[in-house]
Amino acid sequence: MKIRVIQIIFGLGCTIFFLVLALFRVHLGSVGTALANADPMWIGAAMIAYAINLSLRTWRWQIILRPVAAIPYPTVARALLVGYGLNTIMPARLGELFRAEFFKKSFGLSRVWALTSIVIERLFDGLTVVTCLGIGLFLTATTSQSTDIVIDVLATGGILFGIILLAALCLSGSVMSRTLSRFPGLSAQLGMVQRGFEILRTWRTAEVAILTLIIYLPDALSLWCVVKAVGVALGFADTLVLVGLASLSTLVPSGPAFLGTLQFAYALAIEFSGGSRALGIAAATLAQLCLLLPVAIVATGVLFHGSGRFLFSLLARRKSDDAPASS
Q1: What's the total number of domains in the chain?
Q2: What pTM was estimated for this model as a whole?
Q3: Other beta carbons within 10 Å of 82
């Protein structure tokens, strides 16, 4: 069975699993009522904050790519929107692969460079949201069943991104350079990866880290506004917990728009703050409809504007690449 088919099946399985967990003992009528009564003013504020968040993320990605290529901001923005939008449409975060492919087609940047820069981007995001979750837990004195789950998520996220950070630092070190020189066949591709990770050993690390902290101000504000739209006003610590849980939930393979995992994360965060799980599910659904769906629509427009055959040619190339393996 093809790897991508396995990814899709596993992602859809996770969606069903987490939806069942989120909806357990939740009255769907309460979710519907919360959605129907959502305040459009707060929804609009969330959309504006999310747009600012994406514009800052584009700037950060441009900085990460700068040692490799000086790419114009509009080009980086289009590629980022394609990746984020297709992550919403496609299961198992396959949009990241399309983001690298889009860069290859539109700017000629190596897929290895693009994917390495995406890993660096996600590494800074992961370390930031784990920190947010840890601070949020530290500042709250809540002791409930949901607290144990949040602690487990924090530990898992911390271990995962700690391992990724150590691996990235090892890849960027001088030992790896000497190792690669002994294997010419591997040096080309892995050399690109190493050069990409070298940003972690330069002053640009501080620049990217500071910008990442700035990014999460409108990011947290957008989530706070979405929750406020359904009538829940989160405090500072509870907002940090929501940011951590919502962000980490997107790492789990799932169906389109992180369906299921995002509902579970919001329900857990709102329950942790003392609110109703139904309101958390309603807020997650609002985030999917009002924040993620517009990005998916924009991404579709970017893909088909000027070169409408890009997506079809990409899918055709993927199919031809898989043909020998399936024969």
Answers
A1: 1
A2: 0.86
A3: 26
